[in-house]
């Protein structure tokens, strides 16, 4: 089997997130201050192996030799260390591109650690919150469906208002295709499917209300599609699966709310100045 550590170096075994403690237990050592290799004068510690192990997928097969696994991870770290040393010899660490990427990666790491700390302060959802979520989101659970669509896919045009205008009177997919051609859009026809349990709740409600055969304009990654629902297939879920999925959704919403609240609080007291042309657009004035 093969493992991949941070930086893309391959080794010969697979392990799991949180594996560091298991590796250490297998070697009978503590990570702090333990040097496991020296590469051209640079130490590699057991702590580094523990960090690397956190990126590997669970579960860990019981048959894996923990010592062999730690050695495999170490070889991957050594390979990367040699690459890093070669890059430094070529002074790649002094280039503007490296410095910008280093700053971004450091900021993303710190923001991620803050998010993890916030998650520890947000309580788990209560049974009542889970029940309420299930009741208020039927298309994710009791009425979950797989919607089959005939659709037209195309790159978004610059003028979205014109697109919406020409589609207003299109009440079939053929009519929608003709409307798109009238404004120079060449669309690809095909089939698609949407799981209402995985879709944005508002989009799921919009699809549920869509009249039979009526074209609907939908986002699809970096493209748009105009689709017509041709079949609705129920998706059954066990009560346990429903509760677990609802609990995850409630917690995710709570974490997002708390994170956004903290960002809003920080913005309210921060001193932010913009260079010419980079300030955000002002919201339109309210009509009297």
From TrEMBL:
It comes from the Bacteria. This is Parvulin-like PPIase.
């Amino acid at each position: 089997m093969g493992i991949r550590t941070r930086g893309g170096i391959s080794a010969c075994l697979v392990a799991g997130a949180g594996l560091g403690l298991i590796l250490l237990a297998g070697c009978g050592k503590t990570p702090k201050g333990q040097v496991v290799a020296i590469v051209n004068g640079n130490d590699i510690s057991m702590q580094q192996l523990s960090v690397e192990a956190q990126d590997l997928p669970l579960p860990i097969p019981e048959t894996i030799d923990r010592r062999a696994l730690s050695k495999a991870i170490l070889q991957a770290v050594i390979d990367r260390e040699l690459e890093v040393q070669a890059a430094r010899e070529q002074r790649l660490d002094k280039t503007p591109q490296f410095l910008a990427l280093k700053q971004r990666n450091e900021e993303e790491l710190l923001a991620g650690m803050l998010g993890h700390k916030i998650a520890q302060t947000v309580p788990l959802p209560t049974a009542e919150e889970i029940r309420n979520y299930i009741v208020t989101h039927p298309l994710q659970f009791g009425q979950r469906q797989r919607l089959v669509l005939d659709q037209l896919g195309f790159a978004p045009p610059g003028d979205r208002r014109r697109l919406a205008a020409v589609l207003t009177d299109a009440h079939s997919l053929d009519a929608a295709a003709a409307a798109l051609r009238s404004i120079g859009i060449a669309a690809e026809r095909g089939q698609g499917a949407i799981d209402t349990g995985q879709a944005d709740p508002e989009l799921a409600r919009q699809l549920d209300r869509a009249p039979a055969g009526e074209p609907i304009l939908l986002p699809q990654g970096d493209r748009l599609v105009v689709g017509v629902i041709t079949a609705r297939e129920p998706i059954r879920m066990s009560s346990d699966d429903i509760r677990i999925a609802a609990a995850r959704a409630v917690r995710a919403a709570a974490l997002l709310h708390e994170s956004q609240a903290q960002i809003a609080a920080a913005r309210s007291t921060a001193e932010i100045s913009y260079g010419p042309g980079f300030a955000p657009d002002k919201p339109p004035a309210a009509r009297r």
